[in-house]
């Protein structure tokens, strides 16, 4: 039997809803997507830019929805739908009201994470690590926008000890209303980097927008900032102006509260030594990359601030694995006995995360006769700085000893031009053309890293490689949320 999430009487009050039909006593979940809806869920018919959940009510009932949350405005067109309903003025607004109610009843210690890179990775590391200390609720995938945050909060069970929410933005003013719903005890900003520069003048404006996260921190809460980020000082000033009195830092800088002391990586992962609030902590990570260790510092710092057992969290992180598209490694068995290592970092990209991924590739051990191959696609939303920022990837590629580069996307032409004559580099008109050339080029022992902005479509490219050639691990895969999230909710689209 499914666990009760909300009593229907509480739903009616929280949503300011008008009940219709034979309602259940409770619901076991909240859904906006008929494809992932579980029997007993309440289905919220949210209207997105491309889909309207009201068009999928029959599918929701067929999937087992126990009640439909619908708009009063849409009701006349739903005459043939016979089902328990909660009728509201606006479905998305009603979901936000339920999120407020969830936050008000929760006694969980809550962490909110934002930043230009590392949000989902840090959120998933927090989910995994804190589970060693009590029940944890965290937002699924990258549900970090105007519908994803309320949805995640509305799903918060009453008895959780910890909760973790990712908050994203593309424009100024987007974080503010979301963090005021979440009201975190700890707010983490992972790093300020040139992402979404098409919507901002410079990094200072990005930092100011990210700093909106401080406006929702509870009275005795903490801001955790990256001490190695040049924006750390300005962010601390923004935090103080927002009324946050406790400010802590993580990084490699000497004065950091949560400091990286030593980092040793190999093909299996990394050994990390850190100092967390003056106490030594050692841990093993299965995911190589110094940027991953940086994220873990913030995780351990947050654990310290919310009263979790830091060493227990550190121990738990040894079994944490990268979520889909964010640095996971896969063994590919190619025709003719060729073995290739694939580093899947295909979920998204900006200049900072691209450099980090190239660094991971440069440190990866290839087999005898194997090469390090970078498969790179456009970084989007960089505005007029895009050609320069793409061309500047030449430096880490050459410094990292990358042997071959495969490129796709109009913006990557800038990198192709500056790499000409420096390294084996191929630019392609399409992803299919790139994949065909890549398959013809593989040698035994090659290590290939794939990375691009999400909409470039490199994730399907990776999926084709895995479907055809992946050698499945002997042990069961670790539990982790999918990293794939849509840009909007829908009844038949993706959640």
Give a verbal description of the structure.
The chain has 495 residues and is of the alpha/beta class. The protein has 3 domains: 6-91, Udp-n-acetylmuramoylalanyl-d-glutamate--2,6- Diaminopimelate Ligase, Chain: A, domain 1 (3-Layer(aba) Sandwich); 106-319, UDP-N-acetylmuramoyl-L-alanine:D-glutamate ligase, CATH 3.40.1190; 328-469, Mur ligase, C-terminal domain (Protein-Tyrosine Phosphatase, Chain A, Alpha-Beta Complex). The protein is built from 16 helices and 22 strands. It has helices at residues 8-15, 57-63, 91-105, 119-130, 148-154, 175-182, 203-210, 232-241, 290-305, 310-316, 351-363, 386-391, 394-399, 413-419, 431-441, 458-469; strands spanning 6-7, 18-20, 26-27, 29-31, 41-44, 67-71, 85-88, 109-114, 136-138, 162-166, 186-189, 222-226, 246-251, 258-266, 269-276, 279-285, 328-334, 338-344, 372-377, 404-408, 424-428, 447-451. β17 and β18 (338-344) form a beta hairpin. The chain is globular and about 70 Å long. The chain starts with 5 loop residues before the first strand and ends in a 26-residue tail after the last helix.
Question: Briefly, what is this?
Answer:
This protein is α/β, with parallel strands linked by helices and 495 residues long. It folds into three domains: 86 residues, Udp-n-acetylmuramoylalanyl-d-glutamate--2,6- Diaminopimelate Ligase, Chain: A, domain 1 (3-Layer(aba) Sandwich); 214 residues, UDP-N-acetylmuramoyl-L-alanine:D-glutamate ligase; 142 residues, Mur ligase, C-terminal domain (Protein-Tyrosine Phosphatase, Chain A).
